[in-house]
Amino acid sequence: ITNLFFINNLTSQETSDTVLTLTLDEYFSGKFSQEISPVIYWINDGEDYLMTKASALVKGGRDIIKVKTIDKEDSEIFVNANQLIYKSENGNDTIKSFSFKVSDGIDKVLIFTNTKRVWRFNTRGDYYILERSTGKLVKLGKGLPESSLMFAKLSPDGKSVAYVSGNNLYLENIKSGEIKKLTEDGTKTIINGTFDWVYEEEFGCRDGFRWSPDGKYISYWQIDASKIPFFNMINNTDSVYSRIIPVEYPKAGVDPSSCKIFCLELETGKKTKLNIPGNDVQNYLPRMQWFKVKNKNEILVTQLNRKQNELKLWLCNPENGNAKQIYSETDKAYIELDSRDEVFHSSMSEYKLTPDKKSILFLSEKDGWRHIYKINLENGNVQQLTKGKFDGGAYYNYDEVNTSLYFNMPTIGEGFEDSRDRYLWKVVDRNIGTEGGELVMLTPEYRYEGYNTYNVSPNGKYAVHTFSNTNSPPISEMIRLPDHRVLYNFTTNEKLKNIISEFEIPKWEKITVITEDGISIDGQILKPKNFDSTKKYPVFLTVYGEPGAQTAINRWSFGLDNVVNEMGFIVVTFDGRGSAAPKGSEFRKAIYKQNGKINSRDQAMAMKELLKLDYIDKERINVYGWSGGGTMTLNLLFRYPEIFKTGISVAPVTHHLFYDNIYTERYMGLPQENFQEYLESSPSSYAKNLEGNLFLIHGTGDDNVHYQNTEFLINELIKYNKKFRMMSYPNRSHGISEGKGTTRHLYESIIDYLKEKNQL
């Protein structure tokens, strides 16, 4: 078969007679859990770091230890767990689970604990301040509700803390305990210092205020969601009478929330709106950051128009709010904020300054590939640091002598780029106006072939390196840069490796398919134990296929795919056009106004090539996906019934009009302008074509992809007398994880359906 290529092809995977079987019981036993790399906090420019460790003296408590980066044995107690016992009127309370930050002088430690979930993440909780020099531990926010404080930050001088509670900003003096309310207009729909649901979901916006470097100002976002329609979810099970759960949720075609940024002068209380040109409703302001420009503190704001095909950077004066444009770019399709790669899904990523403090680093796809640019804050001059037919990923820090920038991307070579791997590179920044510096790969590929990420120290001398691939669980280690010398390990996952060996878990292989449309699609395939090329095997295609993510990526993942593979399925996944694969913006943006058409065709045509293999059972082709993958599952089952026989769709978007405006309008445009494309790209429009087996699964409490999607599709299927199976999970959210036994029940339901429909 000339248009299907295997890399490291494994023709046989024989097992011993005593091999263990991976059942659901084994999977849920906990034996396949992995070691997690510790979270470290760099101090002293990276020469030292802080991390938590279980206390030997306080039951359930944790110490914060200070470690010399060059030698982890050179460590000392930074904060003793005894210092984190809070003495209140109700007795002593040991702070057990927490995250922390330290002041610039590292005397004050800000502790975040008792956290509560807000939408997707635990961003509400209780904050404490520990003064190390005196041992004094103070709980912040006296008089405010428990676990209601958000995003507390120490002032630059370490004397005050600002935080959000109840959609208002507060300032607390650490020494006196005096609390000052900085905003008075916060309500459920007037949101100060944080964001509404859609800004968090689609722009990663949660923390909504910033201190100025001199501590004189606090700048903050204000979201006015008062005109956003409520989507009402219903809780039928937690009381005798049903309860309505309203969520401000702007669907495609609905005007966004109004967004403004204010600057508050703390001494006078003067509040100044940043006068950024453009309508507050029809433009997004997803990033804001303070910089010193010509010895003055100014605010850099990123603006995207509603269609998200025009981006501007504005420098704003905190005193009068005047805004000056220093950069702009447009795109015929859309601009992906941060041009995020799979390795770069950080929340509210900040622009990094160059060593001379005059320019910021900026990711852009304006030449057709994702590259790193420098934008001068004083004059707006732009210099391209990386150049060529390849996609860069995350940029980190500069090296120790500030001549090269560390960043992450796949391998590049003579016409070959593997979109599944990630490595550390450096680009020489000569800073002489030339574009496209010399590139050097630093990760030893022979040792670390797969997925590599880095937490680079501020001085660029060290990094926490995490590595895995599809067949090797993660390891994490401290390395020296730029020679990538390993100083010591954090985690090795040797125990997990031994268990995997006992079960003789099959190994993933890389494949590349050239479809009949001439599209090169990277994928990965997992053949069953004791694979025999003379037999016929059912196929389990696991999909996402929507923008913003990859499934065919060479990193460790262990879950449902492996259990299904143990049942005798060939498991396969592909990244076609529209996925986040680093194969150029034309590849990723081919789905513009056709999200659901182009990307589903790539998946189907890739599978069509796979069907040419003699050992593939064409009558047992299964597809499974969640969220966007659930949508893709429906598109494949409805549009290509001659290929796909069984589909399991979890929490799918069944019509583009039912999902949020930021995501949907970015990839589909405005429905007021191209409603026909919305119809043609939505799977519900093709429900009448269902011929195979469909299993729909959805949580009724899904605040992301509303249960409405499934109910709408059900009506379409009923209209055309199409039979299907359905499982709803009461009050479960998008991840369908809440409630005892939920995940096990979900997995067993999927496994049982596959057995039934594939005669196993």
Keywords for this entry:
Rossmann fold; five-stranded antiparallel β-sheet; 11 helices; 760 residues; 13% helix; Methylamine Dehydrogenase, Chain H; nine-stranded mixed β-sheet; mainly beta
Number of DSSP strand runs: 45
> Would you tell me the structural class of the helices and strands?
mainly beta
How much is the average pLDDT?
A: 93
Return the CATH architecture of the domain at 4-31 and 507-757.
Answer: 3-Layer(aba) Sandwich
Question: Helicity range of the residues?
Answer: 10-25%
Between the first and last Cα atoms, what is the distance in angstroms? Answer: 29 Å
Number of helices: 11
* Shape field: globular
Supply Rg.
27 Å
- Examine the coordinates and then state which fold CATH places here, giving the name of the CATH topology of the domain at 4-31 and 507-757: Rossmann fold
By CATH reckoning, the class of the domain at 4-31 and 507-757 would read Alpha Beta
Strand order of the largest sheet: 1-38-39-41-40-42-43-44-45
Pick out the low-confidence regions. Answer: none
- Under CATH, the homologous superfamily of the domain at 4-31 and 507-757 reads Alpha/Beta hydrolase fold, catalytic domain
Largest sheet: 9 strands, mixed
Characterize the structure shown.
The two termini are 29 Å apart. The chain has 11 helices and 45 strands. The strands form 11 sheets. It has a 9-stranded mixed beta sheet with strand order 1-38-39-41-40-42-43-44-45. Strands 16, 17, 18, 21 and 22 form a 5-stranded antiparallel beta sheet that branches. Among the domains are: 4-31 and 507-757, Rossmann fold, CATH 3.40.50; 39-182, YVTN repeat-like/Quinoprotein amine dehydrogenase (Methylamine Dehydrogenase, Chain H), CATH 2.130.10.10. With 760 residues, it is mostly beta strands. The radius of gyration is 27 Å and the shape is globular. Helices cover 13% and strands 37% of the residues.
